[in-house]
Structures are given as structure tokens and as C-alpha cells.
Amino acid sequence: MGVRGAKIVTQLPDIPRWIYARWMILSGQGRIYSDDDHNMSSFIIQHPTNGLTCVIGKPGTELVHEAITEDGGNLRVITFEENYRYVENVLKEWRQSPAYIHVLSGELPQIHTSDDLIRFLENDELSVSDHIPNELRNELYDAMLDSPIAAFFTGNKPVSFCYAAAETETLWDISIDTVESYRNKGYAARTVCFMIDYMNGKGKRPVWGAEESNQASIKLAQKLDFKPVERIYLYNKK
Length: 238
Description:
The structure is a single chain. Helix content is 31%, strand content 31%. It has 238 residues and is α+β, with helices and mostly antiparallel strands. The protein has 2 domains: 2-92, 3-Layer(aba) Sandwich (Aminopeptidase); 104-229, Gcn5-related N-acetyltransferase (GNAT) (Aminopeptidase). The chain has an 11-stranded mixed sheet, with helices on both faces. Strand 2 (43-46) and strand 3 form a beta hairpin. It is globular and about 55 Å long. The relative contact order is 0.18.
């Protein structure tokens, strides 16, 4: 973790708004950019492979440009209510997208999950699942390195998937996707509930992040009684 990482962990409590930044530090996968290693009030944390970048506070504009220049992948910059306008002035040519962090407000609705149609995906099942688009397949291969993947099966085909995209000591971030031709059938809701049950057994509570433009994700979150607790802002290259 290193000295800088240890400082960051102590000042970012284990709450939903910091799940992505804290996960990158705890997993040892976060690249840290700071103007002053002794005063870590403003800094940047970036995942070296998936491009996820959290801007905390108001780091210098040169530092922001350094971080976004070094990354060669699909960069996604996360900012917060207190600093998004500052970052917006730095990333003038980037596209902003509001997003909401949701948490479960009560008990999960009674959605049946204990049948043979939902189980954890095995690695060799991906290689023989030609119906899964390549982009999603590659995402699932990467996810398997860090998280079990719950899958809903129909006709012996895995069609809906849920895994932990980020984890801290007490939280996990829900990632859910369904093969397009199998959407709107209730498979995603059942798969999410299965994964939530599993993670509850590990003492970890779910966090649901969804861009405002992704109404399908937001509606599913609402169906499962998740409530928005904070708005954040994403920036993507245009």
C-alpha cells in the first residue's frame, strides 16, 4: 500500500462515496498522483488497466493533465459535488455525465433466487458461450480475477451476470449486465439478489452506481429498493 496509500485510507472512511478510491488503494492497484506527499488533501487515484480515475479535492491542473495523459485506455474520471466544477474547467473538452450512488434502503424484495438457474460461472463456460459479445466476455474474464460471477442460465446458456466490481472492508459495488436478447425478462434482478445474498454472508453491503442516462440500471435499482444517497460526476473523452 505504501505510505501515501496508508494516509489516503485513513482519511477516506469506508462509506459508499469513497468505494472506488478506497478499493483501488486497498487492492494495491491504484496509481497515486499528488502535488504534496505530506499534505494529502488533494490527489488523484487511477487504476492502471481499466482507466478508472478518482479526483479528490482540487489537485493542480498540471497534475490532472499528467494523469489523463499517461492513461492510454478508456479513461473515466470520477468527481464529486465539492470539486466537479473545478475539474470541469480543467477537462473542458470532455463529456460530463451525472451519476448516482445507491444503497439498499431495507430488505430485498422477495425475488426467488434459490433455484438451479442461478449459480457461479466457471471459467471454461465463458470460452464455449458464443452468444456472449466479445466485449462482455472480455469484461467477465477480467472480473473473474477478483470476484466470483453469479450467472443466470437459460437453456444451459449463461445470459445475465453480476459480480463485485470493487470491494472495501464492508462494501461492494454491483456490476450487472445481461446479453441484449435476454433483457427485460427479470433475469438481472434475480441474479443481483443471488449475489447480494452471497456477499451478505461475507458481511459486505451492496453499493449501486448508475449514470443518470442509464435508466434501465436506475429502474432495476429502484425495483430492488435501492435509494440514491449521493450524486457524483463522470467525465469521459468525447
